[in-house]
Amino acid sequence: MRMARVPDEFLSEGRHWATPSEIADRVGAPVSHVHVAAGRWFEAHLAFSPVRGLYVFIPPEFRSWGVVPAEWFIDAAMMHLARRYYVGMLTAAARHGSSHHAPQAFQVMVDRKVQSRVVGRVRLQFMWSSRAGRVPTVRVNTPTGTMLVSSRETTVLDLADRPSDAGGIDAVATAVSEIAAGLDPKRLAAVARFYPRSAVARLGHLLEELRFAGPLERLERIVAKAKSPVLLDPRGPRRGARDARWCVVVNRRVEVEA
Prior knowledge:
This protein is an alpha+beta fold.
């Protein structure tokens, strides 16, 4: 196989990525030759490298981009880096049916730190979480295989735990409102035990305000022993009305997009 034909040959076999050593073995050339050829592939929008040591091949329909959508390669990239991960936050919420806030970045939770990066049109935002690999996820199909996405219950708890990474408490409330109907109260309470009381309290308050149809007593028991209240909006003022049930300081009015 000629080096120039590597991207199209791999794609014709249904292989969307490869390491330099795999390519070198295939063409019978030194790895250094692969690195040189890769520079030409990148310039011609035939391939790109989302993480060091992994080349992703670009099919013709995406060559004007010079990259493919993140869901096409995120699982391979995380396996290559030996990271436990899941696609989360607003990206996961969109997968579960939230449509108001299109995520500005493809958000990924990882068990060890990975530097966020921009690859062509794709912005990857990696967020460290000790819960990656422990909280429930679902494996969903992608055009090139599968990827791990946080479960609906994990998604709303992550959003409540990190509203600043979700565009603020209004964006969190809007996303929760759009996917709350599919929440299972028992599973939600089970997953909530992996999270700080602040996230559980914030989510409980939002679900009650959104008139969630399911029972919330299990969540309430988790926050019952809280000694200090949590701010509904961590970036807002420290004063506000007190929601005694959830031990939340309602320091601003939350606006949910209709």
